[in-house]
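Batch manifest, entry 17 of 40.
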Amino acid sequence: MSATHDAKTPARRGSTPGPAPETMITARGLVRTYGSGRTAVHALRGVDLDVPRGELVAVRGRSGAGKTTLLNLVGGLDRPDSGSVLLDGAELTGMGEKQLSALWRERIGFVFQSFGLVPVLTAAENVGVPLRLRRTPWREREERVRLLLEMVGLGDHAEQRPGELSGGQQQRVAVARALANRPALLIADEPTGQLDAETRAAVTELLRAVVAGEGVTVLVATHDDGLIAAADRVLELRDGLITEEGPR
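Output type: structure tokens
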């Protein structure tokens, strides 16, 4: 069953009824198989997916269900065997490497379970990396980094390196870095998977704040019940297909 959002779908939490929101992500017929023959793994078997703009959407499913595969296809990090992905109306599946690189710099931010920070750089320098790649002027870059670190509650930790920060603080730096270039879409793969309960709750609150404050659409794969409860809608990945449980 497609996870399509239409005018009959109840309004998301805290909103008033009205027209269906614009769609940020549209995926149709996504198929991805790894290997061949008896050892083939059919991660996705024809997934249809619609993600409205400005929502936090959680994808859940058992380990190995294909959640990471789905996020990689939506973010252009991998290509489907068949099917298509549109981001804000632009088709990713036909893009070349240069087009995808520009998309990652300007439109999509990624957050991973392993944080992915550069150990020798400070928190501020890690957040500033995407801005340096875009050759953002120094003053503008410094101001954006300062605002982001304050937003994630780490304004006083700008000069600390990842090894001097807790896991939760590192993940918040990773979120700030992903937001540096004001992406339209934030893709997060198990962002709370390595965190304790208190820190998971803090990162969940941060992701909700990102949707409200930065106007970002967030697509997250997770097993975290707290993050699932905070989502505007929850999608279940089962047997290589998406089914919608509906708005929270």
